[in-house]
Design goal:
The protein is of the alpha/beta class. It has a single domain, classed as FAD/NAD(P)-binding domain (3-Layer(bba) Sandwich). The chain is 24% helix and 19% strand. The protein contains 12 helices and 20 strands. The strands form 5 sheets. Strands 1, 2, 7, 8, 9, 10 and 20 form a 7-stranded mixed beta sheet that branches. A 6-stranded antiparallel beta sheet has the order 4-13-14-15-12-18. It has a 3-stranded mixed beta sheet with strand order 3-17-16, covered by helices on one side. A hairpin with a 5-residue loop joins strand 16 and strand 17. Helix 2 runs parallel beside helix 12 and helix 6 crosses helix 11. The longest helix is centred in the C-terminal third of the chain and has 23 residues. The radius of gyration is 25 Å and the shape is globular. The termini are far apart. Pfam families: GMC_oxred_C (PF05199), GMC_oxred_N (PF00732). This is GMC family oxidoreductase. Belongs to the GMC oxidoreductase family.
Length: 563
């Protein structure tokens, strides 16, 4: 999207045309010269109602960042309110096994993409509704590795996290057992874990079986992936029984069975059981402060009406696009100059092949097999690493990738799609280094609410390009060993990361190690925006772990003050 718009039919912000008629010019000039009268008392906008009740905490966002801490705060006896921009839905009634019908799960407001590798949004990177992006995530839940938090120490590039992996390990363990993670025990790349996964792995789909055999032939270790979908009926503390996954494969279209551990069937019911209030379709626009700079209230729109909620503490958990957007809109926590900076997106190169076998890529969980042998490849010419995943794919998604990458359209695309059931893919999920050219800013162009749209600049740097090249070569070798023909690659970038990173000092970070803003004492940020580095694994489990850790740090500090 260009920075400057030109005048053309249908443009969102057309240039104001110059008046040519002399008489009309003089009339307009006279009108402009008239004194402007102050609006009468009746014409003045009425002030927002100020609710008498002041809650302990407001949480903005109910995804992987907001939901766990909402439950933790409610269980501690605090009066908490969550504001979610999207609606509340009933999975058993509203979720269809149909990609197009489930478009409502995604954050479909336009986000402007810039840079040499503009990031795709919508169904790629964000969600809306009570449960956030977890409503359509594929539920991959591997833990981060120790080295993922110390990139600068290990490679002299990027930045380190302000704490070590030992701070997250107890929360990883708690989450795996609360959510009911299905996975291998022992875990091949971390055999020393104190506890194994509570459930056995989910069945491998066609792509996973092909990848498993080919990797074995090439000497690459693989394992069924850790996934937050139940391989058996599971009793969840505080929730009750959840039913097992039926392997229908449409995880990204929402789980209508409740087998996938999205926040709407796990932490959010628990939070409400302990008194938390969740207000859906509540779009936050303003964050109010007092003379000392403390947050005092949040203003939001719900069903066309503006409302205000007073609070003692604010937890901003809206994701790595909407979180910095809100901060920039409200000129909040900007002292470090880092809000919107350091945007990262996981390298997600995919390699596809066509097989003689009947694969049926829509069956089974989308990613059944994993390899972390590539976490630190011996022959790497880049910092960090990546993991390998087998992937299934839904038909509309696959057709759109064919159109984008191979430029097929019309009859050629229809002809190729006849081989859809014989298609299998592998992709990577890899590190991305922060870079000054990758950032989020507010655009001049306005959205339907009259607010500036976010514009995200992203260009894959040399490290990401080398990682993609290394991974593509390896994945092609795997599919060649598996007997694939018509092998092709699709370069993509997944997840939104950074933009409000945590650190040891307010000079180069927005929040401290506990998630508290350096320059706003009662503001906490808890989502993937605070990640100092991208990690070489899927982010969901780490976001949830950070959420619980942030809640515990906040409660401990509050107890010290009260004591």
């Amino acid at each position: 999207m260009p920075d400057e718009e030109v005048l053309e039919e249908g443009v969102l912000n057309p240039i104001k045309p110059e008046v040519q008629d002399p008489l009309l010019k003089s009339i307009l000039a006279e009108n402009d010269a008239l004194p402007v009268e102050a609006p009468s008392e009746m014409e003045q906008a009425a002030p927002l109602p100020d609710p008498v009740d002041e809650v302990d905490c407001v949480v903005i966002g109910t995804g992987a960042g907001g939901a766990p801490l909402l439950a933790r705060l409610a269980m501690a006896g605090l009066k908490v309110v969550a504001l979610e921009a999207g609606p509340r839905r009933d999975p058993t009634q509203d979720y269809a096994t149909d990609e197009k019908a489930q478009h409502f799960l995604f954050w479909n407001d336009e986000r402007l993409s810039a840079g040499q590798n503009p990031v795709a949004f919508g169904n790629n990177n964000s969600g809306t509704g009570v449960g956030g992006s977890t409503l359509h995530y594929t539920a991959y839940t591997p833990r981060a590795h120790r080295g993922d938090l110390s990139l600068f120490t290990d490679f002299g590039k990027g930045v380190d996290w302000p704490f070590g992996i030992e701070e997250l390990e107890p929360y990883y363990e708690e989450l795996e057992h609360f959510l009911g993670i299905s996975g291998p025990t022992p875990y091949p790349w971390d055999a020393k874990r104190r506890k194994g996964y509570p459930l056995a792995p989910l069945p491998l789909n066609g792509a996973a079986l092909l990848m498993q055999k080919a990797c074995a032939d090439l000497g690459i270790k693989t394992s069924p992936a850790a996934n937050a979908a139940l391989s058996a009926r599971y009793y969840q503390e505080g929730i009750g029984w959840r039913e097992a996954c039926t392997n229908r494969g449409f995880c990204q279209a929402g789980c209508n069975r409740g087998a996938k551990a999205s926040m709407d069937v796990t932490f959010l019911p628990l939070a409400e059981a302990y008194g938390a209030e969740i207000r859906s379709e509540a779009f936050v626009t303003e964050i109010e402060r007092d003379a000392k700079g403390h947050v005092t209230a949040v203003v939001y729109t719900q069903q066309g009406e503006q409302k205000r909620q007073r609070c003692r503490h604010l937890f901003l958990c809206a994701g790595a696009v909407e979180t910095p957007r809100l901060l920039l809109l409200n000129e909040l926590a900007l002292t470090s100059g880092q809000v919107g900076k350091n945007f990262m997106a996981h390298t997600g190169m995919q390699v596809w092949g066509t097989f003689d076998e009947d694969i049926r890529p829509y069956k089974g969980i989308p990613g059944g097999l994993i390899s972390e042998d590539t976490h630190r490849p011996a022959d790497a010419d880049f910092a960090g690493g990546y993991l390998l995943q087998s992937i299934g794919v839904m038909p509309v998604t696959f057709a759109s990738q064919m159109a984008r990458q191979r430029k097929l359209w019309g009859q050629p695309l229809r002809d190729y799609m006849r081989s859809y059931n014989h298609t299998a893919g592998i992709n990577i999920l890899g590190d991305c280094l922060p870079h000054e050219s990758n950032f989020l800013e507010l655009a001049e162009e306005k959205d339907g609410r009259g607010l500036p749209k976010p514009r995200i600049h992203f260009t894959a740097q040399e490290n990401e390009q080398r990682m993609n090249a290394h991974a593509e070569k390896l994945m092609r070798q795997i599919w060649e060993a598996a007997g694939a023909h018509d092998i092709w690659s699709f370069e993509r970038y997944a997840h939104t990361i950074g933009t409000a990173r945590m650190g040891l000092s307010g000079d180069d970070a927005v929040v401290n190690a506990d998630g508290r803003a350096f320059d706003v004492p009662n503001l906490y940020i808890c989502d993937n925006s605070v990640f100092p580095s991208a990690l070489s694994v899927n982010p969901a489990l780490t976001i949830m772990a950070l959420s619980l850790r942030t809640a515990d740090k906040f409660l401990a500090a509050r107890q010290r003050l009260d004591g």
